[in-house]
Amino acid sequence: MKTLSFSTLKTVATGSIVAALLAVTTGCVTAPNGYNGYDDLYEHTHKDNKGHKKHKDKKNDKDSYVSVVEQRAASKVRSMGYRVKDVKYKNGDRKIKIKAERGRDDYKIELGYPSYNVIKLKKINRSLGSDIHY
Fold first, then answer.
1. CA 22, CA 39: separation in Å to the nearest integer?
2. Which residue in 32, 52, 60, 111 could disulfide with 96, CB within 3.0 to 4.6 Å?
């Protein structure tokens, strides 16, 4: 029987390692069932857990979206020189209502959504209590 030389043994070992790595890499890249990296990673673990389903609610995503719209509207009004007191936006509305002040006067400002353009600017004079529309 013939013995293997060191170079032949080295070539066989290297080839088998490359084949194993290639198989692992191919398996990771082409995972079955259309692997989606953005899905819930622990979905299989929490499949029957009612508490998990309760917390995995789409309503939270909508609320965070509303807050982003309100923050952007407040930023726009601040950049116009007003100090923002309150911002109200209901999901699905085409208007964002803002209460702000500038100097000694209060203002009610309506911005259009999604353009954030000023639709209405209403000045409320504190000392007289009258409304002035612009």
1. 26
2. 111
More confident residue, 130 or 92: 92
Please report which helix (H) or strand (E) contains residue 18, including its range: helix 6-29
| 133/125 Cα distance (integer angstroms) | 11
The sign of the CA dihedral 15, 16, 17, 21 is positive
Q: Are β-strands 95-102 and 105-112 bridged in parallel, bridged antiparallel, or unpaired? A: antiparallel
Integer angstrom CA distances of residue 4 from 1, 9, 12, 15, 80: 10, 6, 10, 15, 83
Q: Is the dihedral of CA 61, 64, 115, 122 positive or negative?
A: positive
Distances (CA, A) of 46 to 15, 31, 40, 61: 41, 21, 10, 20
- 81 token code pair: 């020189």
